[in-house]
């Protein structure tokens, strides 16, 4: 018994070490991302307050909102991926699985293609595309809620099938919008679907950060329930977990943070799929560790990916979705091969 308790204590100690290490890596990544780019800023000048007016503008008005929001977007995508993998008990689940990301893409695409031609110019603002994306993701949530009769009809498998159908339908709608768009609209739509943090500003970022922060901390309290759910829905009911409430809370929270993140950054793939698996490989599967570690590592990955997108072809920028897909797709293939190996 003492040896068992000792092994459990060692696991928790290792997990705390990993969390502190990831937090340190995130801090360093954010500091580097603030000073590096097409216009380089000396870190010593920032520390000692000897920064020029131009450098101050670049640092605080352009890079700071970009770096901060990339942290929150990465944390949102990774945390929602970890929650959905636990909720669906499916290692290949990610935020796009239930159609929320696709719904946000449809809302943004509708504003880019239809809104620019049908809306008076004085009504167009930086909030139009984000609002369209949020409305699109909200519409998908409402549709899912209706189809699954409050997220309870026929369990998780029914919800997954509904998500697949919604993704297919949204793909058709986006294809139609792409077909009817002119050259300028097509270019805007293409860049938005590849993802970028280039358009974020403080007025856009601050409301998003507040909503995302509230949802992030709210999700953390369901870590124990997600652990129990791995035993199965019926067993979780017997152990006192309100599975319907858990489904509702996880899906609504994940949809909100993903919808808000996608609304400002565009489509960014593989973060919600890859990060939770890396975290579990490093330190274990209990969600008290997996959820915060996924959020921190997701934030770090997004900051680093955004930095790479800014410096690799200066002064131009690569879409950040290309960076995350280039990193995530090989890992996804390796994961499939690993699962296949274990099955045999």
In short:
The protein has 14 helices and no strands.
What's the topology here?
Layout (H helix, E strand, L loop, with lengths): L1 H34 L7 H5 L5 H36 L11 H19 L9 H20 L7 H26 L2 H12 L7 H19 L2 H7 L3 H6 L4 H23 L5 H13 L3 H25 L8 H24 L1
Q: Could you give the order of the helices and strands?
A: HHHHHHHHHHHHHH
Number of helices: 14
* Helix/sheet category: mainly alpha
How many individual β-strands? Answer: 0
The largest β sheet comes out as: none
Shape: globular
| CATH homology superfamily name | ABC transporter involved in vitamin B12 uptake, BtuC
Distance between the termini: 34 Å
Q: Ranges with pLDDT <50 over ≥5 residues?
A: none
* Annotated CATH topology: ABC transporter involved in vitamin B12 uptake, BtuC
Strand residue percentage: under 5%
What's the mean pLDDT score?
82
Whole-number count of domains: 1
* CATH class (first level) name: Mainly Alpha
CATH-derived architecture: Orthogonal Bundle
Estimate percent helicity: over 70%
Radius of gyration: 21 Å
Which characteristics define this entry?
single chain, 344 residues, mainly alpha, ABC transporter involved in vitamin B12 uptake, BtuC
Structure description:
By secondary structure, the protein is mainly α. It has one domain (2-343): Orthogonal Bundle (ABC transporter involved in vitamin B12 uptake, BtuC), CATH 1.10.3470. 78% of the residues lie in helices and 0% in strands. The protein has helices at residues 2-35, 43-47, 53-88, 100-118, 128-147, 155-180, 183-194, 202-220, 223-229, 233-238, 243-265, 271-283, 287-311, 320-343. The longest helix is centred in the N-terminal third of the chain and has 36 residues, at 53-88. The model has no long low-confidence stretch (mean pLDDT 82).
């Amino acid at each position: 018994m003492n040896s068992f308790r000792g092994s459990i204590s060692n696991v928790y100690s290792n997990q705390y070490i990993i969390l502190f290490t990831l937090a340190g890596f995130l801090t360093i990544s954010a500091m580097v991302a603030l000073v590096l780019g097409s216009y380089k800023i000396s870190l010593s000048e920032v520390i000692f307050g000897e920064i020029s007016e131009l450098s101050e503008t670049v640092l605080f008005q352009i890079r700071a909102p970009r770096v901060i929001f990339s942290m929150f977007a990465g944390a949102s995508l990774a945390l929602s991926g970890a929650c959905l993998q636990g909720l669906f008990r499916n290692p290949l689940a990610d935020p796009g699985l239930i159609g929320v990301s696709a719904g946000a893409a449809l809302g943004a695409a509708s504003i880019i293609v239809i809104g620019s031609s049908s809306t008076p110019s004085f009504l167009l603002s930086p909030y139009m595309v984000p609002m369209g994306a949020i409305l699109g993701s909200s519409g998908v949530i409402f549709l899912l809620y209706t189809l699954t009769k409050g997220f309870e009809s026929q369990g998780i498998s029914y919800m997954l099938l509904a998500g697949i159908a919604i993704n297919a339908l949204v793909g058709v709608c986006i294809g139609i919008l792409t077909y009817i768009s002119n050259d300028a609209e097509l270019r805007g739509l293409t860049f938005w679907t590849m993802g970028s943090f280039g358009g974020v500003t403080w007025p856009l970022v601050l409301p998003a950060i507040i909503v995302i922060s509230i949802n992030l901390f709210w999700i953390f309290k369901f870590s124990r329930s997600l652990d129990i759910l791995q035993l199965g829905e019926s067993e979780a009911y017997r152990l006192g977990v309100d599975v319907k409430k858990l489904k509702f809370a996880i899906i609504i929270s994940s949809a909100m943070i993903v919808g808000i993140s996608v609304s400002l950054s565009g489509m960014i793939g593989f973060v919600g799929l890859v990060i939770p698996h890396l975290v579990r490989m490093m330190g274990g599967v209990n969600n008290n560790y997996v959820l915060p570690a996924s959020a921190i590592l997701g934030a770090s990955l997004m900051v680093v990916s955004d930095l790479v997108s800014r410096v690799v072809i200066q002064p131009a920028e690569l879409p950040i979705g290309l960076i995350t897909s280039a990193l995530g797709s090989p890992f996804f293939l390796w994961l499939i091969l690993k699962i296949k190996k274990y099955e045999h």
